[in-house]
Predict the 3D structure of the following.
Amino acid sequence: MTTDRSGPLFRRGLRDGMPFNLASIPFSLLFGVVAVEAGFDIAQVMGMSFIVIAGASSLTAIQLLGEGAPAFMAVLAGAAVNLRMAMYSASLAPHIAGGPLPWRLVGAYFLVDHVYAMALRDYEAHERTMQEKFAYFFGLALAVCPFWYLFCWVGAVLGAAIPPDWPLDFAGAIMFTSLCAPMIRDRATALAAAVAASGALLASALPFSLGLVVGAALGMAAGALYEIRRERRDA
């Protein structure tokens, strides 16, 4: 007979997710400030933070729109930054594909970097029931996402009141490095990361940050080709 541990796992998710706010709070502040400086009002900033709930892609789109880029270019660049979400979904699918559809739909909305990284690590390390998996997942989401909304609003309200010499822009690099570095666990992921970074750097001169799109596409293609060749060799 199994014991329902969904309650303790939800609380554990809350506890495990809280430390990520040390990096995501400055990042959300930065987003709010940049969005206001780009000409967006508070309602627009909050609408984007609630609808998109993806800091890196939102910041990319805001910066491009603030520079006068066409809207479709901003959407394309934001989507390129968020292509990693497709890979996140694919790696989580074996663990939660059998869950209730409403849970999966809500989970898809809250699939942010911190939640994904901690949830996948837990799923791979422990045998969980479906209810326990989602309890931990939603605990992580509740620990992280409300602070994103709140401090996007704080950043938008404060706007120019935040001194320009505050080094808030370091938060994004620290956050993504801490999340992505442990995920480079084999040759395929290492190759994808190296090719994506190299491609983005080489294409950095392209207008409207299209280098991000190029780098993301090349990285995904390199990783996929390596996996295909490895499977054929093993077969």
The chain has a mean pLDDT of 81. The two ends are 40 Å apart (CA to CA).
